[in-house]
């Protein structure tokens, strides 16, 4: 016999309420059995647990608990009965292996697990071992009982050393993973019983993420779990992290927690959140993580798909409570262990609350605010999550009859709306929202309801329990406010009670000071739903103010949730006196503040603000006086507020006033470096500004010439401003300096008046030219430069440029210079001068003579055509242009010649251009030359010969045909249309057009006056490609048309058919054959009919002698074949004798078999004469060979082939073959 570990993973959805309702399963909150005020209603909830650290369930619904402080393992059956299954006493010890578990000694048992066979495993942490209970017997599976240490890797696990192992887990193969807490390692016991280390190097610390797990560091790993994908998750307690070891790569990483011992991150990524002492971790089928965040008194959940973390249970406080509510509302106290059963229920060891609690997967509990019966509450969201490993199909979101007093909100625009759907499957690890409304129909305290949801999940249905106080009237709430808090003794205070209700409020409100009523009940003002009362207090103390609303026929009575604390203090008065108001800037200012009205001397500080800016404070002395040395204030008005904040006995008071700060006075002096100077000589003016001895004025000084500001100069750090001027015009000037002031000092004007005298400056004028020798019409630039004898300024004014006594131009100086460009200097020598007229500051001056020589200008003659090349029959303009490179164009005559022959003379216009017009030119090249004769200013010149290209005028040839599809023998008309391209000239087209079929010329025809040529041709063959070519003339170029394909079909014809064409009959019988003649291609004619190759004694007759076939029609003829009457001639056979010639012809017929054979080869005959000739010859041959006497013995039995023939009058002939079998 052998043991085999069996395991499996079910596939299916799992509906989990998130959050679910929490309840206590075991433990009464007391450390020992006996009277306990928090005992529950079952044996399990009325018995004591001591610091439990582990829990698990089996398939029968039994709950197993590590009663850690009592050193026992307890079992709670489904009815709540408690038994001890391991541990002999509360005293820790190590003994009992191999014996009954109930007589063994344990030491601080922790994590517990149950296998499929019902064997119980637990971490006997104090004994440094993992132990198993099987069939009531106990044994050690890992560790040396009672011995702590590290060792044994590679050997049997039950002789290895562990150190305080807190957690363990099995994988699907039955391998055991142990959180070897004291050794800071994760150990593995395989199914053969050997132990090894799979994670951690044994050194307490944090490192190794991203590397091999064996090299990583842990710090007191407390819990471990193996996910369905084989990944290992470790609760790294002192590192405040959940670590992950990849099942494939063995790489270590962090799955949750950033290492900081704190409580943050809900709603964000788990790796960015903070944990505090995570002691246990488990996974569900969807891969979600559940973490016992022990020091945060919470259970956290990490969504596998999104990586987001949230709190699943615990409100963060250490106060026990919340049973019967959704788990986030409950108080937990150091939860150190979590466990999931197959239905998704979460169990936790609430260690310091001394309880084992369960968070239901299938039941949630929602509490609603107090409401009126018959109304619908605002919706509250309840999340449903699929924590299985297959899609979840919700089948009914409000299943009856279980659903009562509950409804769902599906309004998409509401803040909370239902997203769950019965039409869309919920993917694995996804969630949806139920927006649940409470709809009680009767009064209850509390009223209850249920929403039931069904699905394809194995734990269906799930339910949400609804509860809330339900009244016969609408609930109300009361809030109290104070008109002044704190307030002074004897000062009137108004209290207002605000009643909130959906209805108009009536009734009264009684106000209370503690338990003492304040006055009588006050009526509620229905317009504002408020009631008020005004009172005052004579006692210095805090007063607890409440207001009780009486209610009315629509609204319930209500009290404030929180009382208003009214503070009463002694009234005080504050006064402040400044040492001066207004005060000059830079003078010391003091505020003297006095608090009065007190009975006990006030203490504390008086604070001073300038507007909203604090400027300091001063401490009160024993007489209630404070002196405040005011820091420097800017010039202007300041809104000063002094505040006494009050103390334990004295009410606050304040005092406000306006403090004015005035500008400090200043004085200004002025000096000059030179009182008399020539224009443009630099003169320095110096202004000095002084203020109070403790500061130097800043800002700027304006230097003025009378009322005109010359410049504004900033003061130096010494209060000095210097201004250098070289632009004062000639004359007398009165100079002053004005200080413009700054934020602290007032303005001031210099007391000295400076009189400055300025004289004119002598000048000299220089003249230059861009060239002293130039060509007529070329621009020459003259430049005059005027220089002042002193200073660096540039004279202004006008320059006259003179050519002798002739004024060439007048221009203003610019920066002491001016240029004039002229092209009008005469040929010869020109004497040029420049005369400066002077200005207010500078004297006049004249340049010396400048001689410039002007020569005649060379010219260039160019020749162009209005169009080149040009078509024949086109008018042409020849243009000659003469240029001299100057501003004035040449004048005079131009002579034009064509091919060395003078053709005309033209006169240059103002632009130097002359033209000649030519009506047209013959095709070819023509050479033109233009010759310029010159004038007084310009030299003659000839153009370069210009070649004019004259081209034949292009044409187009458009070919059309009378048809593109012909029948044999049909004539075709061809039309060629020749056109000139562009505008039509007056001279028309001449010449011939050639018509071709492929490369063969069909015909040639001259074009008429309209450019059209026409021919009619007969085309051979079955197809042709027709084209045409215009041969051109003296003015027009040749051209060809696009080829046109023409198809030539057969001539009209007919079809002959017979029914039947084969038959059997007895000798001397007759048969009628239906002969059909069909017109093809409108064939029309009359026909001769005959039977060729009939056997002896057989005849055929036709219903029509010469049938006529109309075009496009069908003609029917009956043919009677008779095998019992000799053929006497004609188209029918008779029994009686006829003429001899007809009888002889009948004798010819049997011999025509040879003709029938020939007819099978040649089915059309053009000559009826040829047919008759052949028939005659063959008939004669047959007659000679055996046509004796005519007898009627009938046709001999056998099979005979013969033809029925039809021949038209135009010679077209066809036949049809017939087969006749004579049976007897």
TrEMBL record:
Claim: Nucleus is one of the keywords in the record: no
Pfam name, any one: Big_3_5
Lineage: Bacteria, Pseudomonadati, Acidobacteriota, Terriglobia, Terriglobales
Keyword line: Membrane, Repeat, Transmembrane, Transmembrane helix
Classification via InterPro entries: 6-blade_b-propeller_TolB-like (IPR011042), Big_3_5 (IPR032109), Ig-like_fold (IPR013783), NHL_repeat (IPR001258)
Transmembrane domains' residue ranges: 1140-1158, 1165-1184
PANTHER family registered for this protein in UniProt: NHL REPEAT-CONTAINING PROTEIN 2 (PTHR46388)
Name this protein carries in UniProt: Ig-like domain repeat protein
Annotated ranges, domain Bacterial Ig-like: 480-559, 587-653, 671-753, 767-854, 865-950, 959-1048
Gene3D superfamilies reported for this sequence: Immunoglobulins, TolB, C-terminal domain
Residue ranges that the Swiss-Prot or TrEMBL entry lists as coiled coil: none
């Amino acid at each position: 016999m052998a043991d085999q570990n069996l395991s499996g993973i079910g596939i299916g959805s799992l509906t989990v309420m998130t959050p679910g309702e929490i309840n206590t399963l075991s433990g009464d909150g007391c450390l020992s059995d006996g009277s306990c005020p928090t005992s529950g209603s079952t044996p399990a909830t009325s018995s004591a647990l001591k610091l439990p650290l582990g829990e698990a369930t089996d398939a029968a619904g039994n709950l197993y608990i590590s009663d850690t402080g009592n050193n026992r393992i307890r079992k709670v059956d489904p009815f709540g009965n408690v038994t001890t299954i391991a541990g002999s006493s509360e005293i820790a010890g190590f003994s009992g292996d191999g014996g009954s578990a109930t007589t063994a000694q344990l030491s601080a048992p922790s994590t517990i697990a149950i296998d499929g066979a019902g064997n119980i495993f637990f971490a006997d942490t104090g004994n440094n071992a993992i132990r198993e209970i099987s069939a009531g017997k106990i044994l050690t599976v890992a560790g040396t009982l009672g011995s702590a240490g590290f060792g044994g890797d590679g050997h049997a696990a039950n002789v290895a050393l562990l150190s305080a192992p807190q957690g363990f887990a099995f994988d699907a193969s039955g391998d055991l993973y142990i959180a070897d807490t004291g050794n800071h390692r994760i150990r593995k016991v395989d199914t053969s019983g050997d132990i090894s280390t799979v994670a951690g190097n044994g050194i307490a610390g944090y490192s190794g993420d991203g590397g091999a797990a064996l090299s990583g560091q842990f710090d007191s790993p407390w819990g471990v779990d193996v996910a369905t994908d084989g990944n290992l998750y470790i609760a790294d307690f002192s590192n405040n992290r959940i670590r992950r070891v990849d099942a494939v790569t063995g790489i270590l990483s962090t799955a949750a927690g950033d290492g900081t011992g704190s409580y943050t991150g809900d709603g964000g990524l788990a790796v960015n959140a903070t944990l505090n002492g995570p002691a246990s971790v488990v996974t569900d089928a969807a891969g979600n993580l559940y973490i016992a965040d022990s020091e945060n008194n919470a259970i956290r959940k990490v969504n596998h798909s999104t990586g987001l973390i949230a709190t699943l249970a615990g409100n963060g406080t250490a106060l026990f409570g919340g049973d019967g509510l959704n788990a986030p509302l409950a108080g937990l106290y150091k939860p150190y262990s979590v466990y999931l059963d197959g239905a998704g229920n979460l169990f936790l060891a609430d260690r310091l609350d001394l309880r084992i609690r369960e968070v239901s997967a299938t039941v949630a509990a929602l509490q609603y605010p107090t409401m009126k019966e018959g109304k619908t509450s605002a919706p509250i969201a309840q999340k449903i999550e699929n924590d299985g490993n297959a899609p979840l199909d919700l089948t009914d979101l409000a299943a009856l009859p279980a659903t009562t007093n509950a409804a769902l909100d599906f309004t998409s625009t509401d803040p909370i709306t239902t997203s769950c759907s019965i039409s869309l499957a919920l993917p694995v690890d996804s969630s949806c929202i139920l927006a649940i409304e409470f709809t009680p129909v009767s009064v209850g305290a509390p009223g209850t309801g249920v929403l039931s949801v069904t699905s394809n999940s194995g734990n269906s249905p799930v339910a949400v329990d609804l509860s809330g106080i339900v009244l016969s009237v609408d609930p109300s709430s009361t809030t109290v406010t104070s008109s002044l808090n704190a307030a002074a003794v004897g000062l009137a205070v108004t209290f207002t009670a605000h009643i909130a209700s959906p209805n108009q409020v009536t009734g009264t409100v009684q106000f209370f000071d503690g338990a003492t009523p304040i006055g009588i009940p006050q009526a509620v003002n229905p317009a504002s739903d408020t009631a008020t009362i005004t009172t005052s207090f004579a006692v210095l103390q805090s007063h607890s103010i409440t207001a009780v609303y009486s209610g009315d026929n629509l609204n319930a009575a209500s009290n404030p949730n929180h009382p208003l604390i009214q503070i009463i203090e002694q009234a005080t008065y504050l006064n402040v006196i400044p040492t001066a108001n207004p005060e000059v800037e830079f003078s010391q200012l003091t505020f003297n503040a006095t608090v009065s009205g007190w009975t006990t001397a006030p203490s504390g500080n008086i604070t001073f603000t300038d507007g909203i800016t604090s400027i300091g404070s001063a401490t009160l002395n024993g007489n209630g006086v404070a002196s405040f040395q005011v820091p420097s204030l800017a010039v202007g008005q300041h809104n000063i507020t002094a505040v006494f904040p009050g103390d334990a006995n004295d009410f606050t008071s304040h005092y406000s006033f306006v403090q004015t700060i005035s500008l400090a006075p200043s004085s200004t002096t002025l000096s000059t470096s030179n009182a008399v100077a020539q224009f443009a000589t630099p003169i320095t003016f110096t202004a000095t500004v002084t203020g109070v001895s403790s500061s130097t004025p800043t800002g700027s000084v304006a230097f003025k010439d009378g009322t005109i500001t010359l410049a504004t100069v900033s003061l130096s750090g010494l209060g000095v401003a210097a201004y250098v001027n070289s632009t004062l015009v000639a004359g007398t000037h009165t100079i002053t300096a004005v200080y413009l002031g700054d934020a602290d000092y007032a303005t001031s004007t210099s007391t000295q008046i400076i009189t400055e005298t300025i004289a004119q400056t002598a000048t000299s004028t220089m003249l230059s030219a861009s060239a002293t020798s130039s060509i007529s019409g070329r621009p020459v630039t003259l430049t005059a430069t005027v220089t002042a004898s002193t200073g660096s300024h540039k004279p202004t004014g006008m320059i006259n440029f003179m050519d002798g006594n002739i004024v060439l131009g007048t221009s203003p100086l610019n920066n002491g210079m001016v240029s004039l460009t002229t092209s009008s200097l005469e040929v010869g020598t020109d004497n040029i001068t420049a005369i400066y007229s002077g200005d207010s500051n500078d004297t006049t001056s004249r340049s010396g003579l400048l001689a410039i020589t002007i020569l005649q200008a060379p010219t260039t003659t160019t020749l162009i055509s209005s169009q080149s090349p040009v078509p024949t029959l086109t008018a042409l303009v020849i243009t000659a242009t003469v240029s001299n490179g100057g501003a004035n164009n040449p004048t005079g005559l131009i002579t034009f010649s064509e091919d060395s022959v003078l053709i005309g003379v033209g006169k240059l216009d103002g632009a130097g251009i002359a033209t000649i017009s030519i009506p047209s030119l013959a095709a070819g090249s023509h050479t033109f030359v233009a010759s310029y004769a010159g004038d007084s200013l310009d030299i003659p010149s000839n153009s370069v010969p210009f070649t004019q290209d004259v081209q034949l005028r292009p044409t187009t040839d458009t070919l059309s045909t009378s048809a593109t599809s012909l029948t044999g023998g049909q004539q075709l008309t061809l039309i060629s249309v020749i056109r000139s391209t562009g505008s039509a000239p007056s001279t028309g087209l001449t010449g011939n057009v050639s018509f071709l079929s492929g490369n063969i010329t069909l015909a040639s025809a001259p074009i008429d006056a309209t450019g059209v040529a026409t021919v009619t041709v007969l085309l051979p063959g079955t197809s042709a490609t027709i084209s045409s070519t215009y041969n051109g003339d003296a003015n027009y170029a040749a051209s060809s048309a696009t080829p046109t394909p023409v198809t030539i079909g057969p001539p009209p014809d007919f079809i002959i058919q017979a029914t039947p064409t084969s038959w059997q009959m007895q000798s001397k019988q007759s048969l009628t054959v239906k002969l059909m003649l069909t017109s093809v291609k409108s064939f029309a004619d009359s026909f001769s009919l005959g039977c060729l190759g009939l056997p002896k004694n057989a005849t055929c007759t036709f219903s029509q002698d010469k049938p006529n076939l109309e075009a496009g029609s069908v003609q029917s003829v009956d043919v009677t074949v008779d095998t019992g009457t000799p053929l006497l001639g004609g188209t029918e056979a008779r029994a009686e004798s006829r003429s001899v010639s007809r009888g002889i012809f009948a004798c010819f017929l049997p011999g025509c078999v040879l003709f029938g054979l020939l007819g099978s080869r040649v089915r059309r005959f053009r000559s009826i004469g040829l047919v008759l000739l052949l028939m005659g010859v063959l008939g004669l041959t047959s007659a000679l060979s055996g046509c004796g006497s005519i007898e009627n013995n009938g046709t001999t039995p056998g099979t005979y082939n013969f033809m029925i023939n039809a021949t038209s009058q135009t010679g077209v002939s066809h036949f049809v073959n017939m087969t006749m079998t004579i049976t007897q």
